[in-house]
Amino acid sequence: MSVTIKDVAKLANVSPSTVSRVLADNPRISDETKQRVYKAMKEMDYHPNAIARSLVSKTTKTIGLILPNTDEDLFVNPFFIQIMRGISHYAQKKGYYIMYTYSNNEDQEVEHITSLINSRRVDGVILAVARKDDKCIAYLKEADYPFVVIGKPENADGVLWVDNDNFHAMYSVVNYLIQKGERKIAFIGGSPTLNVTINRLEGYTRAMENIGEKLDENMVQVAEFTENSGYDAMKRILCKGRPTAVVTTDDLIAFGASKAISEVPGQHISIIGFNNTPIAAFRNPTLSSVDINSEKLGYYAVKLLINKLENEKQDINNYIIDTKLVERDSTKKFIGGEN
């Protein structure tokens, strides 16, 4: 049986990608690590293939973008289109191409990342979401492969990332509604495994606790980032109670929730979305939404990654992008059953 890079890595107690970097004589690998790898290669009589070595040192000027998918077409959600626009703007300026891939679940994302790395088709990877116990982040860290995350990881040590202050953004939105006299406020978030959902739910909970309102599980629902799912989530809330306002973590969810509210005659409910997608200004009623500067998220994510790939000196490993509530008709009291 032939000896592989993985065998050498195991004996040298390093990752396979570190062995690859040693073969490519990467200056970022310490002399001590190089000597350990060379010793393991000698002991195992490992002779790297010349073609494989040339592939290791090859740069593609291409970056892989890993996008999550839902039951509906990925590109129905303008958020991903906006971050891709920001990514493309900076990448094109620096002479890089973008290769995107999407999956039905997290395990498939890991498979795609593995394929991209092993085939050396990309120089680095952008993850479009951050999850609790994120398998993609764990894999990329173990592989010691350049990557950046749109979303703050649970453990951000040594990780490049960009995000909004999602806790503060939602906390501010709920306080805004409270100042308008609302007290019974519902929450519809995305998947509970997403860090963005976790952080925004924490902001909602803290704001409600500050006025003496304990978390009412009947007023908290999760949904996919689609109108249909937002509609179903709002229906579940309305079956259990009558909120006077609802905050959502995505405009598509808010659009569906608005439709559910419109089917209840005389129901007065304020509603706020997130992402300030272009269509929010053209709905009937127009939707109040938090502008999270999606294009900037993409722009600064790829900026961090390209700086790393080109060994540019950078003193920071993350950017926090500002948010702003854009008030429209839906917080001036949306009245169900009236058009």
Automatic annotation (TrEMBL):
InterPro entries (alphabetical): HTH_LacI, LacI/GalR-like_sensor, Lambda_DNA-bd_dom_sf, Peripla_BP_I
Instruction: Tell me the GO molecular function terms.
Output: DNA-binding transcription factor activity; transcription cis-regulatory region binding
UniProt keyword annotation of Transit peptide present: no
Q: Which UniProt keywords apply?
A: DNA-binding, Transcription, Transcription regulation
Q: Name one Pfam family in it.
A: LacI
HTH lacI-type domain location = 3-57
The protein's name in its UniProt record? LacI family transcriptional regulator
Query: What's the source species for this entry?
Result: Clostridium estertheticum subsp. estertheticum
